[in-house]
Design goal:
The chain has 402 residues and is mainly α. The chain is built from 13 helices and 2 strands, in the order H-H-E-E-H-H-H-H-H-H-H-H-H-H-H. The protein has helices spanning 2-45, 55-68, 87-94, 103-107, 115-129, 132-141, 143-149, 160-168, 211-220, 232-355, 360-366, 372-381, 390-394, and strands at 75-76, 82-83. A two-stranded antiparallel ribbon has the order 1-2.
């Protein structure tokens, strides 16, 4: 019984080791193939424009799709079943923090309906915008979301993920041109990686014989005796092998020369762009200095205006104080005049009352001296129209004595 348990433990540990080895080899293979595809893509971009018809790009897109779909968790439905999920479901959640992202525009595309097709459209748009590395690095930094979407031993959860973001940074030097209505966005079939471009055997220059020589040697090894006529062909094959080697060296030289010309043109373009940016920087600095000077002058003018307004406000306050003092003095003077007038009127009334005690009818006729109307009436009675003078009465001819 103990031996059976030991055998079971050994079998389970062996299965775990095999499973971990397979997962490690799978991750390493995908990362290695992705690195090789990026290199071939960069080399191909030196001679032609990369678009949907380029086999290097189609292979790279398939590899990246496989990496982002590696050990992706399914979506649990209401009935408890697990439905398959595309890497676009992870990207649209984890890359929301990228500034000026293209997620909303891809979600609103009319000709792209499936989730897998939207993910392929996102790869193309991110490459054309030269932001694919930024998207991947932002998504990988959101470890909580990544952990929610992927199982253990996934590539995006391992150490290889940081290498992936660094490798994708080299694609920013390529100008891509894609059509988002092509057949490459069809999400009805999974992506298939073509390993044949990376499995070709290149014979080293140190090898003596070529493949054809080895085949002929194997074919002629069965003969029991060799004749002198069989000595010539190896020499001819050596000449052919040298000619082939020279052709390969010449092709490599031409390729290197074309790459050199491209790099020189690229350096010249970057130098012109740098000079333009430096001139623009100088112009912007001059504009900034002019704006600073204008702001300083405006600030000084505003400070001068504020000082003038404060002085005017102080002068207005002093004038208001003076007018208030003048009004107070005028009011005191008016009160004193009114008091003097009232006293004079009261003295006149007293005098009249003392001198005319025996003539009460005069008071009834003239009224009170305190009112203005009665005073005017008295002044009018003094005129010659209403009062007869005594001289006229005395000299009247009708009054002569008999």
């Amino acid at each position: 019984m103990a031996s059976f348990n030991i055998g079971g433990l050994n079998a389970s540990s062996r299965r775990r080791s095999v499973h971990s080895r397979n997962a490690t080899v799978e991750r390493r293979n995908l990362i290695t193939v992705c690195r090789l595809s990026i290199k071939t893509l960069i080399d191909r971009s030196c001679f032609e424009t990369i678009d949907d018809s380029s086999p290097e790009f189609n292979n790279f897109a398939a590899i990246l799709e496989q990496i982002l779909s590696h050990r992706l968790k399914g979506q649990i439905t209401w009935f408890g079943y697990e439905s398959p999920r595309s890497f676009w479901d992870y990207i649209k959640v984890a890359c929301r923090k990228v500034s000026h992202n293209c997620i909303c525009s891809i979600e609103n595309m009319e000709n792209v309906s499936s989730s897998r097709a939207k993910g392929r459209a996102w790869i193309r748009v991110a490459l054309m915008e030269k932001h694919l590395s930024e998207y991947i690095s932002t998504a990988l930094r959101d470890f909580k979301t990544t952990r929610r979407f992927y199982e253990d031993a996934a590539i995006v959860l391992g150490e290889e993920a940081n290498m992936l973001a660094g490798m994708l940074l080299g694609l920013n030097a390529i100008d891509f041109s894609f059509c988002l209505k092509g057949e490459g966005l069809d999400g009805s079939y999974p992506a298939v990686i073509d390993y044949t471009p990376y499995l070709k055997f290149t014979q080293s220059s140190d090898s003596i014989s070529s493949d054809e020589e080895e085949l002929r040697t194997l074919g002629s090894s069965g003969s029991e005796s060799s004749t002198p006529e069989n000595i010539g062909p190896p020499f001819n094959m050596d000449e052919n092998s040298c000619y082939n080697k020279c052709k390969r060296v010449e092709q490599k030289y031409r390729l290197t020369l074309e790459q050199k010309g491209y790099l020189e043109e690229l350096v010249r373009l970057r130098e012109t762009q740098l000079s333009e940016s430096i001139s623009q920087k100088k112009l912007l600095r001059q504009k900034i200095e002019a704006m600073d000077l204008a702001h300083k002058m405006e600030k000084e003018q505003l400070e001068y205006i504020i000082v003038e307004l404060q002085d005017q406000l102080k002068s207005f306050q002093s004038l208001d104080q003076l007018s208030a003092d003048v009004s107070l003095s005028q009011a005191s003077l008016d009160r004193s005049h009114l008091q003097d007038g009232d006293e004079g009127k009261q003295d006149g009334i007293n005098l009249l009352s003392e001198g005319k005690e025996d003539t009460p009818s005069l008071l009834g006729l003239c009224g009170s001296l305190t009112s203005v109307e009665s005073y005017k009436f008295l002044t009018s009675l003094k005129s010659s129209e209403y009062l007869a003078s005594p001289t006229t009465e005395m000299t009247s001819p009708g009054l002569t004595p008999s």
